[in-house]
Amino acid sequence: MAEFALDRLQLNAQRSALLVVDVEHEFCHPDGKRYLGERAVAAVQRLQALQARCREAGMPIVFMRSIREADDLEFTDFGREPILVRGTVGPEYMPEVAPLPGEPVVEKESHDPFNGTQLLAVLDRLGIRPGASHTVLVTGVATHICVTCAVIGLSVRNYQAALVTDCSAAGSQEQEELAYQLFSQPAYSYNVKLTTSDLVELVGSAKLAATA
Question: Which residue ranges form the domains of the chain, and what is each CATH number?
Answer without folding.
Answer: 9-211 (3.40.50.850)
